[in-house]
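Subject: sequence -> structure tokens, single chain

Hey, anyone have a minute? Need the predicted structure for the following. Not urgent.
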Amino acid sequence: VAFVGFQYKFGKWMALRSVDAKDMPEGREGRYNYGEIHRSVEQLCREMGVEKPRLMVADMGVPNAFAVGRKGAGVVVVSQEIIDLLEHDELKGVLAHELAHIKNRDVVIMVLGQSIASMVGIIVQWGYILGGDRNIGTYLVGMLLGTVAQMIVMIFVMAISRYREYVADEDAATYTRNPDAMARALEKISAGAQGKEMKGEETVNALCIFGTERGILQKIFSTHPPTEKRISRLRSM
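Reply:
Had a minute. Here:
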């Protein structure tokens, strides 16, 4: 339990620190009407039955957004790039998606899953080492078996993550009553991220509304479903 709690607290801190997230102003600053974003979130929170999370903004290098924390202690971070890119109804869909992750405790579920995978790897590794001869070969085989066991569990954890993304998309479409706006947002975010590198830790990518996947292995371990499938499901609602 302590290990899971540490991972949760440390992961939340690292995610915010890695993108240098700052508290979102309550009103207008220059050309940014942050007050409108606050009002949209407040309206969505009333409909979704969750407390308003702390809103933060960051320069991520790409249009994206992510949520960390749990109900009552959530944080939603949006990039300046996504504010520049999206229309109001599209951004509202993205905000609803992130609020759905908090409402559904998805971040907590993912931290728990990753912690279980780590613990399984450690148990398999040391179970083999302690049950065998005390030599370098035993240690190497134990390390290999532990890594493989952890990867197998992580395949299931990533499959759960991809399913939770679909659920958050559907919740966003339901609460905004505008699945097309959510679909358009994903199209724009995908196009806007092409050829650009996101700032921050690799773990932040797993939290974001838009994730990247390239090769077969990366798709297996991807936290996000293919964007075109997400768009197709939204358009069929």
